[in-house]
Amino acid sequence: AIHYNPAGLRKEGSELLVSHSWHIQDTGLTQLAYAGRNAGASLTYFSAGSMEGRDEFGNQVADFTAEDFALSGGYAVKTGRLTAGGTLKAVRQRIKASLASAFCADAGLLYGFETLPVTLGAAVSNLGTRVKFKDEGFPLPLVYRAGLAVRTGRGFPAVLAAEADFPNDSSAVFRLGVEYTGVKSLALRAGYRTSPESQRRAILGKGFGGTSGMSQLYGFFMGFGFNLKPVQIDYAMLPYGELGSSHRFSLSMKF
Fold this sequence. Notes:
The chain is mainly β.
């Protein structure tokens, strides 16, 4: 909720979550988050792994890394069928010995119909200052989102979701997903995300021999979750063509 739409922070009870993604090319993403009643906070850490260093003449020097930190705090309120939320974030980035920081905010809305099993959502992420390394600055990745979720009946207990993302640095991205909960304590999930053709060709290595097997599933997501109340364990796999696959795990506890 803190990352995608802070309006989702409006919930009963409390939840603590820790997750880690073994991403492609030795990169990794770790997140720790807490939500209770109407408020929540999270800490996100991204590491680009070890990268080979070169000087201005192309000679090899000591390896280096790049990393990002983000500290977030959010709050949500509800009036009638409408829930609104906001998040403030402090971001710090480091590349070798160079540091940069920025401050930004997210905002979101959720609306649940009284007579229909449908929820509508909208959000904007990363409204804030520019990130500046030395003399060069660049904007944060601003993203506008809109989506809906439909809950099915008992015959096929599932959630169907659709979302459209409009980032400031690329074309629109569309997402579809489904979660099936017809098996006791088990959730099965799958989804698909579109991508610009140039990005897709690069990821799949088209023009350089191509790919086969699981690599061709770039854009698809698949995973499952175990609800062992009060603990929940989740896993997802994301194929990235010639670059390999990303594996995401999370552990959460509700109390």
